[in-house]
Amino acid sequence: MTPCSLKLLLFVLTTLCLLIELALAKHAGITRRYKFDVKMKNVTRLCQSKSIVTVNGQFPGPTITAREGDRVIVNVVNHVQYNVSIHWHGVRQLRSGWADGPAYITQCPIQTGQSYVYNFTVTGQRGTLFWHAHISWLRVTVYGAIIILPKRGVPYPFPQPYKEVPIIFGEWWKADTETMISQALQTGGAPNISDAYTINGLPGPLYNCSAKDTLKLKVKPGKTYLLRLINAALNDELFFSVANHNLTVVEADAVYVKPFKTNIVLITPGQTTNVLLKTKKHHPNATFLVAARPYATGPAAFDNSTTSGILEYHNTSNKTKKINNLPLLRPSLPVFNDTTFATKFSNKLRSLANVKFPAKVPQTVDRRFFFTVGLGLNPCTNQNQTCQGPNNTMLAASVNNVSFVMPSTALLQAHFFNQSKRVYTTDFPTNPPFKFNYTGTPPNNSMVTSGTKVVVLPFNTKVELVMQDTSIIGAESHPLHLHGFNFFVVGQGFGNYNPNTDPAKFNLVDPAERNTVGVPSRGWVAIRFLADNPGVWFMHCHLEVHTSWGLKMAWIVLDGKRQNQKLQPPPSDLPKC
């Protein structure tokens, strides 16, 4: 080989190496660091001021932005009187369960004056998620958006929006919610309903003295906007609509879906939905109400009010009327108990299931579970007074009639260090303890049992779980959230699940892939997931009142054989109980 051709070969090889390095760099994640100071702040809503728990004095809290593949490090410092923990809702936390956040499940809470660094990598996910406090009812004001962008240079599988806007729904109480839930759990009654719903922390013009506390969404004609919808409300599923505008649903729970048009979105607490809003070609000489109000199916009282913001078109000409003089058009939202709409909407959600974004639905099943989810009762424990549940009882909630008792030390710690004795037992029932007509006349005995029981799964178990609503105390839709995994919603229906006939109707081709699903009122839902993430994973109703009453349980997924299938050891700053 001549010196000239050798130089040329070296040049070609060097260039090739550089190109490969650049290509890898384009897709390599970076580390993003955040500091969360948990502190009190005085906030006024509905003409009343109160001190609330916030992150960095912001309400809602700061947005976490990352790209798929990035590492996220959040240093949380607790400056308030309450114990605190933060959950990164919907983040898979592959082998990083110590960073998941639910208090007494994956960590002891961060005590006053203490701090904890949450450290996790966003793997194989892109879209909208959110973070929130995961202890008691602190998430009422401690929440914010998580925006995961695709890897650099990778487009969305839908038209590139002109602008992206997070829309976070919340719930507001005039009273102190920590005092309220504490009293309710002592008396056995239901806590007070909220005084308002909020959009990005603002109630909107339909509430007393809230005209100034209104979201203004300013848009330009002929543009496409991506609205990142997040339901961070405590206890209510919501219908959402923008007057005189169609929405195109493109993603749910940070998973792309087959796009479909709708003028109303249903979103349960714990769910996120990305929608495209295409503005009108010309200035419409009107403003448009953006509104959300509850979908409620249970027997209990609920906050039947409407939160709203205003969609305004940019005023390009001085000749056009002033915004204040323009007519305000309102959307038409379903009645509060419109289960027909709710069912039709959830049935439209389908995975893309293409080569780029496959739906990896387990086609076979290793273990089947059938869980009843619903309300129940506990005997009155107050010696000197009557309890406020039916017939002097205390309201409770359960999965397979087990009302979960929170341990006083974290389950993940107990599991990792083989110290489960007196912390939890592994005898969570695979099926209900006794069969009855789940959606018909309830049994005479509505009492629940209590315990800290878990299910243990070997690594890579293919799980099928059917969750069945019950009519005990009252049938109700329950949004169930599973930590550590996405699952596929392979089937749902009304009445009692029939294991002989219903599986034939399961969708194993393009079912919706989610982290939170509504168990239909007087119905059932079937999900499948692959237990490929070692650790302890909480599963609970995302209606906070039901979680408080015990509608929760945990799965322990054992380590796999390979090194990359094992849970990593805990970080040195893991909080102590």
Widest beta sheet: strand line-up: 10-9-12-17-14-15
Low-pLDDT regions:
6-26
Number of strands: 33
Structural class: mainly beta
The number of helices is 5
Helix content: 10-25%
- Dominant shape: globular
| Alpha-carbon Rg, integer | 25 Å
Mean pLDDT: 94
Main beta sheet: strand number and arrangement? 6 strands, mixed
Per DSSP, what share of the residues sits in E-state strands of 2 or more residues? 35-45%
Distance between the termini: 71 Å
Properties at a glance:
577 residues, 10% helix, mainly beta, six-stranded mixed sheet
Give a structural overview.
The chain has 577 residues and is mostly beta strands. 10% of the residues lie in helices and 37% in strands. The protein has 5 helices and 33 strands. The chain has a 6-stranded mixed sheet, with no helix packed on it. Strands 11, 13, 16, 18, 19 and 20 form a 6-stranded mixed sheet that branches. The chain has a 6-stranded mixed sheet with strand order 22-21-26-31-28-29. The longest helix has 25 residues, at 3-27. Mean pLDDT is 94; it is low at 6-26. This is Laccase. It catalyses: 4 hydroquinone + O2 = 4 benzosemiquinone + 2 H2O.
